[in-house]
Amino acid sequence: CLQESLKDEL
Amino acid sequence: MNIFRLAGDMTHLASVLVLLLKIHTIKSCAGVSLKTQELYAIVFATRYLDIFTSFYSIYNTLMKLIFLGSSFSIVWYMRYHKTVRRTYDREQDTFRHWFLVLPCLLLALLIHEKFTFLEVLWTFSLYLEAVAILPQLVLLQRTRNIDNLTGQYVFLLGGYRGFYILNWIYRYLTEPHFVHWITWIAGLVQTLLYADFFYYYFQSWKNNKKLQLPA
């Protein structure tokens, strides 16, 4: 789920 | 969300609004590279594919829609608007930008964090964004006379990724395991590409003379 943390960036 | 990322997003938003303002009000896109705008439309289209599948916040979705809408409408204006398209200097804007797309796609197929369709395209958009400004910088070198709005557009566009680098440093320091080399290196390369533009932009601003890039 850490990878997802980057996906909340534009 | 941290102040650096918010500043980065606002700077990015400002760059797009400056460009739309220029094109919409004076009905001119002189000095603007259509190639860079097309690359940015591809960057947003491949980065925001998850807009329909994952929802993070109203802000996130709203900004994605703004960036998608503005980049495609700028391309539309420059290609099809009867007045604007005449001000596009296609003889000068000759950077073969498709030569940027293919290597970025190949690189994304080789270096990514997960080998899934969305992840590879997302990584492709990172690499492509890092080099998307090149046709615009080449055009500025050629046309030399940079009008204020185009200069501000490039300056803000370069500044936003600089804020993002501060955001990544902040998140690395505050969030455990927040390590994303691919994003960091692509973002750093992107910001470094603006380095000489920034230098001449500050020189012209300091000496209060018109921005001139060396040939």
From TrEMBL, chain B:
Keyword Protein transport listed? The answer is yes
Q: Which PROSITE patterns match?
A: ER_LUMEN_RECEPTOR_1, ER_LUMEN_RECEPTOR_2
Question: What's its membrane topology?
Answer: Multi-pass membrane protein
User: Where, per UniProt, does this protein localize?
Assistant: Endoplasmic reticulum membrane
Q: Which UniProt keywords apply?
A: Endoplasmic reticulum, ER-Golgi transport, Membrane, Protein transport, Receptor, Transmembrane, Transmembrane helix, Transport
Where are the membrane-spanning stretches?
A: 55-77, 98-115, 121-140, 152-170, 182-202
InterPro entries this protein is in?
ER_ret_rcpt
Q: Major place of localization?
A: endoplasmic reticulum
Family under the similarity heading:
Belongs to the ERD2 family.
Q: What is this protein called?
A: ER lumen protein-retaining receptor
Instruction: Give me the gene this protein comes from.
Output: LOC104773136
